[in-house]
Amino acid sequence: DTAVSQTPKYLVTQMGNDKSIKCEQNLGHDTMYWYKQDSKKFLKIMFSYNNKELIINETVPNRFSPKSPDKAHLNLHINSLELGDSAVYFCASKTSGRREQYFGPGTRLTVT
Amino acid sequence: QQQVKQSPQSLIVQKGGISIINCAYENTAFDYFPWYQQFPGKGPALLIAIRPDVSEKKEGRFTISFNKSAKQFSLHIMDSQPGDSATYFCAASTAQSSTLGRLYFGRGTQLTVWP
Known about the structure:
Chain A is an all-beta fold. Chain A has strands at residues 4-7, 10-13, 19-25, 31-37, 43-50, 53-57, 64-70, 73-78, 87-94, 102-103, 107-111.
């Protein structure tokens, strides 16, 4: 299936730990995003990459570090997790020249 | 500052009725206005989108109405069905290369359609 996929689907961890979320798209897109959806369902952009280059860093704490090893992958590493990091994280992608963005299924992160 | 304002926060409609969700924006650089549908436990799925050069776009039971002068757009769901029960998000973006098409989302509307 052509899609945007994320792993893991659920992530439960303790404060202070470091964790990573992976995203892969097989749509041939060259632009990828990380969005955060809070407990009130508000969606807000965190990062955007184009052809492996970081373009948007939306005032996210530097505990969050995205990495794009190639155009099809965008990972999110979070250091020293805090309670406030609990949220659903969505990866999305699109191709240059088109406006439609396609979202992954999300990763629900719970920090205890 | 909320770039896109969405209302109502929740909406209850009877089966067969019309669901209407409204959004407003201030940034006149916005030139792409998509609507996303999100079911519990799923990612947002693109439903329909409009550009400001048209006032209406229809796809099946879903219609976007766009009022450029008022800087408002709305989603109409005709003949609403229980399967339409979901959270709906309006969004907007600009063509500016520096923004890479980032989406500014409204806060969402929880639609419940009663059978």
